[in-house]
Each structure stands twice: as C-alpha cells, then as structure tokens.
Amino acid sequence: MTRNPTLTLLAAAVFALAGCASTAPRTAPVAVAAAGVAADDNLNAVLWVQTAQEYRALTTQTWRAAEAQLDAALADPQWTALLPGEGAELQTPAQKPAVIVDIDETMLDNSAYQARLVVDGASYGSASWASWVKERRATPVPGALAFAKAAADKGVTIVYISNRTHDMAADTIANLRAYGFPVEEANYYGLGVEVPGCTPHGSEKGCRRIAAASRYRVLLQVGDQITDMAQLTSNSPAERDALFNRYNAWFGQRWFVLPGPTYGGYEPAAFGNDWSLPADVRRARKQQALELAR
Q1: Residue 39, CA distances (Å) to 119, 250, 283, 284 in order
Q2: Percentage of residues of the chain with pLDDT beyond 90
Q3: SS3 of 199, please?
Q4: Collapsing DSSP states into helix, strand and coil, what is residue 60?
Q5: 3-class DSSP state for residue 238?
Q6: Whether 240 and 290 share a structural domain
Q7: Which whole number is the average pLDDT over 65-82?
Q8: From CA 220, how far away is CA 147, in angstroms rounded?
C-alpha cells in the first residue's frame, strides 16, 4: 500500500501530541509527591521487611532450619548453645531443654512502628517505643509461631530474653499470647532483670543467659543480632568480626540469625557507637564505612 507523506507526518504529530498529553498527568503527581518526601536512611529497609517476599522466605527458612536441628540437639546430652562464662558451665543432661529467643524482629515484627518513624520523619525514642509496646500490635515474624509450637510439642521450653524493659512484661506477654506463642512470665527476661552475682555490661544479655542456664539446658539460640547469642564489650567492627569468625560453625547449628535490617549493632559500630553525633555526621561515617571494592 502506498503511504501519503503528508498524512504520515500529520499522524506522527498527532501521536506525539497525544503522548505528551497522556504522559504529563501521570508524571506530575509523582514529581509532586517526591518533592514532599524527605530522604530517610531506613526507608528501603522497612519497605523490604514489609513487602519483600524474600524477607518472608528468609525468616521462614531460618525457623524451619532451627526446627530441623531440635531433634539432634535433644538427642545429645552434652549439647548446649551457650558459651563458657555465659552459662555453658551450668548445663547438665538432667536439665529440661529450652531454646533462648530474642523477641523484637525475631518472634514479633515491629516494622509498623518503624514505618511510622519513616513517614513522620522521626527517630526512635523511648517514649514512642513504650507507647507502641502498650498497643500490643506487633505481629509474628513469618515462621516464628510454627517453630514455637513445634518446640513446645517436643517438650522444649521457649525462653524469651529481650531488651524490652522488664516492666514491659505484661504487654509483651499479652501480645505474644494473642497469637498463640507459648510463654510463661517466669521465662521472660527483660532488660533490668537482676541476676545475683552477675554485673551486666550495658544492655548485653550475658547475665540473663546465665539465669536461664541455671534452669534449662539451652539447645539453640535465635535472634536478629549476634549479641542475642554472645556478649560483646566494645561493639567495634573488629570485635564483631572476631566473634563471627570464632564461632562460624555454630551458625545454622546452635545459633540461628534472622534478617534485621531496620536497626542493630552493625549501624552504631560504623560511627563508634556515638549516638550524640549529629545525624549528618553519623550518616557520613556510615558512608565512609562502605567498601567500594575488595
């Protein structure tokens, strides 16, 4: 078929105008919205936790792997997931078996609280966190509830060692029980619990692990930070690396770590654990900690 050059040029112009007309309304709202949204270091991390199938896959497979390890741990009377000085010396075959778990980002997902901070342009604060805990609206981390129920069916007690303060016990236990987690008040060790003969190092959990070890043979430890398994003193990158390297074989065997990108010791380790630094200085230090190539 022969094309008319004039008609062809006219049609091209019409299509071009139509494209401009249809494109402008779609892009304008995006530009306006983007102009009103401040940058936030935690946006992608919170978005990933709340929407990524990969996050759910990782937590689910971690909890399934931990459940699969329970039988082997139960069968070995000498098995313990505790280190010397943190309760290993107290372990005996006669003790009832237990698993030590963290709560936040391990059993309960608090990403809704983190999302509020992102949307409001706010930072973590003890008052806003306490209000969130009182709401009792944290939801189970994918895979956590199935593990807890499977462990209970095997006669394994879940011991909760959390850096929620001990006066948050009632709200925390109610939140857990609302979803069917097996939990007893005596097995909740919040921040501030005193352990006779043991002086805690800041918010580290070593003393509370010792308290749990006096009652139970600890088969596994599960958390979203390596300090949920062992104590650090300086939280420096070098000390964190040394702990990981020394006990590398324990991960996936006695220790199980869940993804927790929204906060954690890794972040302050990059700026010397000095939260008094201005936000832009902390951000600059974090950027300086990045490796552009190995």
Answers
A1: 10, 38, 12, 14
A2: 85
A3: coil
A4: helix
A5: helix
A6: no
A7: 97
A8: 12
228 phi, psi to nearest 5 deg:
-80, -10
Q: How far apart are CA 11 and CA 241, in angstroms?
A: 65
Name residue 192's beta-bridge partners. none
Contact criterion met (CB below 8 Å) for 103 and 162: yes
Rounded to an integer, what distance in angstroms lies between the CA atom of residue 206 and that of residue 197?
Answer: 12
CB contact at 8 A, 147 and 219? no
Could you tell me the CATH number of the domain that includes residue 184? 3.40.50.1000
φ, ψ at 100 (rounded to 5°): -90, 130
Looking at the fold, whether 96 and 210 belong to one and the same domain comes out as yes
Q: Hunting for tokens 């609302």 — which residue is that? A: 178
4-23 CB burial, b ≥16 within 10 A, e <16:
eeeeeeeeeeeeeeeeeeee
Residue with tokens 């692990």: 209
Starting at the edge strand found earlier in the chain, the sheet holding 188-191 runs: 188-191, 157-165, 96-101, 216-223, 255-257
Q: Classify residue 15: in a domain, yes or no.
A: no
What is the distance between the terminal CA atoms of the chain, rounded to a whole angstrom? 61
* pLDDT, mean of residues 195-207: 92
Cα dihedral sign, 77-79-81-86? positive
Whether pLDDT at 3 is above 50: no
